[in-house]
Amino acid sequence: MGKVEGALILTASQCSSGPVGPLVVSPIEQAEIDAAVYIFLNAFRDNVRLIYGTEPKPDAMRDVWTFVRDVEPGGFLAARNGADLIGYAIFTHSIKTLQRRALREGKLLVWTARALSGRYGIRWFHVGRLLWNKVLFVGGAARFRTAGDAQLLNIAVSPAARGKGVAKALVRAGLRYLAQRKAPEVRLEVRPDNLAAIAAYRDNGFVERGRTSDAGGEWLVMTAHP
After folding, report:
1. How far from chain centre, in Å, is Cα 61?
2. Report field, pTM of the whole predicted structure over 0.70
3. Of 58, 95, 155, 212, most Cβ neighbours within 10 A?
């Protein structure tokens, strides 16, 4: 493993199956946001189709993720194999800070107006379930924490790159970022049947703390100290 200008670099031999050439993890560039969105749409296609239909528009994710990157660029990480983006992870040292910035800058009003205009292509008869999920998440966001409100918000790897240590490298880089931000603890949620993700988290020091649930089912809550 090496470090170059803030990047985490793994050679093929340092990954479980090893993509061809070195795997480089560093903060995402604005020009890579769309590629990350399409990895998200593929990885979470069942949930995406529920809200956005069979031909989802990338606009909503693009708007929100551009905001997240602007607020906390070091926490939005990209994994690359050569010139190809093969995975991403979004860490924040403080959920409350993101929420306050979104309110203060009027982003929530902008996103709501765009949703109502049809720009995001939302299937409104499923929005009630989405909002209920958010209520459940916000209501349980402080559970199983001992300090702070750092969070792994989202992580995904392209299908061709799975099983090659990409997720582990992204989580490792995210923990290093949170350590630099003096975050005392980070929390994440993962479905109990996502065994590959759970293994990657455990390998990076995450420990199971309990379980929570939303309208879609149960979540395993894990925390780690960066």
Report:
1. 12
2. yes
3. 155
Neighbours of 192 (CB within 10 A): 12
Residue 155 CB: number of other CB atoms within 10 A?
A: 25
Kindly report each contact of residues 95-99 with a partner whose C-beta sits within 8 Å and lies 24 or more positions away, as own/partner.
Answer: 95/141, 95/149, 95/150, 95/151, 96/149, 97/71, 97/72, 98/68, 98/71, 98/72
Containing structural domain, residue 118: 2-224
DSSP string, 123-143: -GGGHHHHHHHHHHHHHHTTT
**Do 149 and 94 meet the contact criterion of CB atoms below 8 Å apart?**
yes
β 150-157/186-190 pair status: parallel
Phi-psi region of 194 (alpha: psi -120 to 50; beta: other; left: phi over 0): beta
Domain count, the chain: 1
Q: What is the CATH number of the domain that holds 72?
A: 3.40.630.30
Q: Would you give per-residue pLDDT tens digits along the chain (226 residues)?
A: 333 334 444 443 344 444 446 889 999 999 999 999 999 988 887 776 666 666 667 888 899 999 999 999 999 999 999 889 999 999 999 989 998 999 999 998 998 898 888 888 776 655 555 555 555 555 555 678 888 899 999 999 999 898 889 999 999 999 999 999 999 999 998 989 999 899 999 999 999 998 887 766 788 999 999 9
